[in-house]
Amino acid sequence: MDFTCGHHRGVVVLQVRVLKPKDAKEYWGLRLLTLNQHPDAFLLTLEEEQKRLYPIKRISALLKDPTRLTIGAFIDDRLIGTITLQKESYKKIKHKASVLSFFIEDAYRNKGIGRRLLTEVINVSRRLEIEQLLLAVVSTNTGAIALYESMGFTVFGLEKKALKVNGQYFDEQHMIYYL
């Protein structure tokens, strides 16, 4: 699955493709960078993520997991954004999937890359006959919420004090998209 946008000279080429185990090291680097840039948007802290054993090996294994699909956005062959689709495997909830690990390097935000990645996840979900996409987003992340709402996601719940970062609480909105 390879997709390319903007194929003109002098124009930045955005490539969107499914990540493979060989992309694990670059994924890890981008995750640490974005975790540092937006500590309130992730479940784990930067320190917790850095303490995990064998991170490249662990990420490589996740990228091989048949219930997960991670799509990356590349500019000049450099990973600048990712989104993961986590499919459910139990029979009664197999029609659902979660959107996880959606992050874009700050320098590339507000350029349509998030929309492109989310559109790809929706398209892949349709091909996989997934009927519902679920996600959780920190309530202060207004840019992400605006993107999700513009794509058709709706809030179905609010978890008060879902995260606590340096003594400060953050609520999370739970959103759903019906395909």
From TrEMBL:
Superkingdom field: Bacteria
Coiled coil ranges: none
All copies of domain N-acetyltransferase, residue ranges: 14-179
Keyword vocabulary terms for this entry: Transferase
GO molecular-function terms, A-Z: acyltransferase activity, transferring groups other than amino-acyl groups
PANTHER family: L-2,4-DIAMINOBUTYRIC ACID ACETYLTRANSFERASE, N-ACETYLTRANSFERASE
Protein name per its UniProtKB record: GNAT family N-acetyltransferase
Organism placement in taxonomy: Bacteria, Bacillati, Bacillota, Bacilli, Bacillales
